[in-house]
Structure formats: C-alpha cells, structure tokens
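Recall the central idea of this unit: under ordinary conditions, the amino acid sequence of a chain determines the structure it adopts. In this exercise we apply that idea directly, starting from the sequence alone.
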Amino acid sequence: MKIALETKRLILKFLDSSDLENLIALRADPDVMKYIGDGSVHTAEQVKKFLLTDAIPYQEKHGTGFFAVFEKEFGHFIGQAGLFHMGFYDKQPDIELAYRLHKKYWGRGYATELAKALIHWGFEHLDIPKIVAGAELENIASQKVLIKAGFNCKGQQKWWNGREMFYYEIYNNDSIKLAPYDKQWPILAEQEIKNLYAILPHQHIIDIQHVGSTAIPNMLAKPIIDIQIAVDSLPAIKQAAIAILKTQGYVYWEEDPDPEKMFFVKGMPPYGEKRTHHIHIIEPKADRWKSRIIFRDYLIKHPEAAHEYEQLKMKLAEEHTHNREQYTDAKTKFINTILDKARKK
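Accordingly, the structure predicted from this sequence is:
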C-alpha cells in the first residue's frame, strides 16, 4: 500500500490493481453514482478500464489522482477521494477535488475531513494556484461539504461533462498567512481612509476607522488593512459605494448573509494576486461598529491580552490555513471574552 496522505481517521492510498473489486462494488451502487457523470452505475468492465487505462497511468504521471480511502481503525475501504485534472484531461489547467463514499459511511463527517486534507495536501505538494469542485444543483450534502472545507461558490455553470453544476473554487494565495507587524500598515490605512473620504458621498459618511489586527502595534497579522466605515444609511449609499469602490479595485460581496453590513475586498484572487484591503460599511447602531473599535482599543492598552490573541491566531492559522470562515469563527469566543472585560470597565 503506497500511502498518499492521512487524516485523523482515514488513509488515502494510490490506486493499484488490488483495488479493482472495491471499486466495482462502489461504482455499482446507484445511490453513490446518482450525482456522478450521467448518474448511471458502472459495469465491471468499465471500472477495470478506468482503473488500468486512466487512473493508474494518470497518478504515475502526475503524482496525484483519485485515491482509495480506508478507515484507520478497521481498515475498511470506504470510497474514493482525490485531486486530478477535470475529467482526467491534463491538457487543461484546472485541478478538481472529488470524492465518492459508500453510503454506510455518509453522515460521519468523512467527506469534509477528506476535502480539507486534500486542499492542504494539494497546495503543499502540487504546483497549482487553485482547486475547483462541482456539486449538482440537487446535491445539498456536497454543497455543504465544499463550503465547510473552505471553497467559495461562484454560481452555476456547465461542468466538463455538460451537466449544470454549482461551481466552487479555492485559491492558494487566499489562504491564512500571518506576517510580523509592519510599521507601514497604519500609514497605508491612513492613506486609504483619506482616499475614501475624498471619493465616497460625504453626506452619508459619519466616521472611518482602521480596525483589525493591522491596527494593533506589534501584532502578528494577516497583511490586510481592515477599514470600517460608519454611514447614516446602508440603502442610501449602497449603489454609489459599489460603483465607486469598483473603480478602486474593490469587489463587493453581494451574497453576504449579514444584512447589517456591506463588505468589499481588494486584491482577492482571481481578481488580484492577494488580498490587501477589506472595507466594512456599517450603520453605527450595529453592534459590530462599536465592538471592533472596543476590541482594538482594549488590545492596544493591554499587551498581555494582545499576546494571548496573537498566540491563538498562530494556532488557528495552522489549523485552518485554507478556511477563512472557520479561522474567523474559532476566534469568536476569545473576542467575546475581551469585549465583556472591556465593557465592564
């Protein structure tokens, strides 16, 4: 058994001829194959051809592929998961993440565990800028798995097999990477704030603040300038802000589920090389306007709390390198604790 990678509960190994019977059984199950290809099961001859003609030669050439997946505890074969050129066609650049598991192993979190591990492994071992994935419009379970793993949904499009799918992608340059404090960060923030005051409708602007870790001296941080803008009315400024900030290289997150803010990103792949600025437009009555400022000011005044936060961020950046949502969510408990302390003073 040539192991490609391991997770906490699973082993992924390169395919060989000994996997044939396992693959035949997997691909003969209509529930497993429902959202794959044309939705039909595969015959033993089709699986044999795939294994010997496509899968094994592909992995020998590229060092990756559609691995066989086994449970660590019992050694049971549970399915396949891997990274490979879409449709195993290596004349096009996109590397696809895919998986299929025996239905007795559904609902155990294995798919999410595999997706996260493959993203990390792929960016560590393959010279690729991004990984893509697709999920059928009716396949709600896979859509949830891909979001949990850190993928961003880019909408519907036709997949390589001609079927309409939700298309997902994740970029190596958009991962969580902390950098030592840079004295240029507050200078860059001040320059951007002056520019925003000059170009946005001034009658709606109440205040603009530099927030986030780059606003805290000597703090290890993602090198992204976070700017928070208080406005008198989100509906009143929305269309103007979108149009104006687009001219400055910002992309608006239209699908943001939080109705209390507008969120813009500069430099996010594929629109740029890497993130440099975030803008959060909020009405001052929203709790997040005050809480971000309170949190920033408390850490500036309490270096011991700032150090604790820095240590937490280092740990979480390692655990959630390619998942911004989980990295952010995992900081919530610490942030709320600091806010409670600050508000009691």
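The first helix runs from residue 20 to 27.
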